[in-house]
Amino acid sequence: MPACLLSARPPSPVITCRVSLGAVRNPPPPAPPSSLPLDPPAANLPSLTCALQCPHFQSCSGCTHEFNLHRPIIVDEATDFFKSIGLLDFTFDSCRLYGWRCRAKLAVRGTSTSPLIGLYQEGTHNVVDIPHCKAHHPRINAAVELLRQGIKELNVEPYDEDDRTGDLRYVQMAVTTYNTSLPASERYRNGKVQITLVWNSRNEKSPNSDKLESLAEFLWRNGGSRSREHYIHSVWANFQTSTNNVIFGNRWRHLLGETDFWENVGGIDISLAPSSFGQANARAFDILLRKLQKYVPYGASVTDLYAGAGVIGLSLAAARKCRSVKCVEINKESQLSFEKTVSRLPKSVDGNISWHNADNSIEPLSWLVGSDVLVVDPPRKGLDSSLVHALQNIGSAERKAKSLSESSSSMVKEEKRPWILRAKEASVQIGSKSNSENQSLPQTLIYISCGWESFKEDCKSLLSSKAWHLEKAHGFNFFPGTQSIEVLAVFKRGQGLKKKKLAKKKKKNAF
């Protein structure tokens, strides 16, 4: 996310939001009898304005603008872009503007007596302390303050990048608001934090492992189930000694608290391990999923690429009674979360569901055979070039696939390819229904984008091939305070009915 290391700027007027009261944070409850600030005082909150009013704004790299949080400037650019390609009904949804971030990865630097827990300044590895972040769920700020106290009391040394010394490198905070014992209106405010401590060692038997245990116990004693204010869900450790910028190592260990982290989005219970990708803005993601479901026909066959733990595909399986759902993900760590989520799917889900640990950039069309709908949710860089090329030529590929299906010898030859065998070995299959007799390829492509610039390029490439037309596009305010938007775009095969009618009308008027 780009930083905002700006010089002092002239005062700007406060711009009033034109959003519903539900988009503004609810007033905080009375302060709990604890020294930890679980919610900022009401006097410091914007009431009905869309001003950030964050004390860390000019130094922190997280947020990029202070005003009009409900409608970042990039929305106007997106509206103009879609108009330029013939789509006039682009919409934009904004929900919670403050305390929306339920996942945060923070660097830990400084000293044991004066720890810094926050984000890097843009272009540097200088950490900015952000104890009062307005984007963070209030429980994350409370957990950060508790961690700070633990570092000081136990003399835990933060990591030093120059000397490669110290113990605590990073911390990941993830909030779950899944608590069915509470009324739905209270669950968000009373979320609980899963804390992952990234320790500078190869494993739990390395030097200073006693300090890791002591720090975990401190966090649990003061924020766990037996504490006065129970807001810690669990404590995990990740072990990392690499000198690059990768945050997590490959070794994880559960230390204290609950092992399973559950959330409810898109109408299903989902399980997310600390190693799995999860959306930072859970509420906005839920809104997007429910919008997406409307574009998938009941009983459809779906392929979900860049699937992670399969949240999108599984939500469609439950909501649209899909005939089959095939999730393809390169990160093998997501498999366990997928399996746990499947275990809580409604009994009414009776389709063929599978998860495959594979690189979908290798012969991507092979994953799409037999699917009606393709869903892609790529990283910020956008679609792999091989997938874009395959989608541009999907018509000719479909004709080829149908002709191959007529030759059993050809099909046997296809099945012997090593990458197919490896993918099958690394797959998880639920259900017994088969869709192999259908050799057609998707007629609908649903693209979920977190990178606006890469989406524009992918969109232009798809439309230039004439294989697809853009039918709908919606924007979502996943990251208030930034110039980032999440886009849900629905493409259909062919030129599109509207364009064909317009072409016929022009031809008729020419005579």
From TrEMBL:
InterPro entries: RNA_M5U_MTase, SAM-dependent_MTases_sf, Small_mtfrase_dom, U5_MeTrfase_fam
MF terms in GO: RNA methyltransferase activity
UniProt entry tagged with the keyword Cytoplasm: no
Sorted UniProt keywords: Methyltransferase, S-adenosyl-L-methionine, Transferase
Active site per the UniProt annotation: 450
One of the GO BP terms on file: methylation
Residues in Methyltransferase small domain copies: 286-379
Positions annotated to bind S-adenosyl-L-methionine: 279, 306, 329, 377
Pfam families given in the database record: MTS (PF05175)
SUPFAM superfamilies, sorted: S-adenosyl-L-methionine-dependent methyltransferases
Homology family: Belongs to the class I-like SAM-binding methyltransferase superfamily. RNA M5U methyltransferase family.
PANTHER family the record matches: BNAA06G32370D PROTEIN, S-ADENOSYL-L-METHIONINE-DEPENDENT METHYLTRANSFERASES SUPERFAMILY PROTEIN
Protein name: Methyltransferase small domain-containing protein
Originating species: Citrus clementina
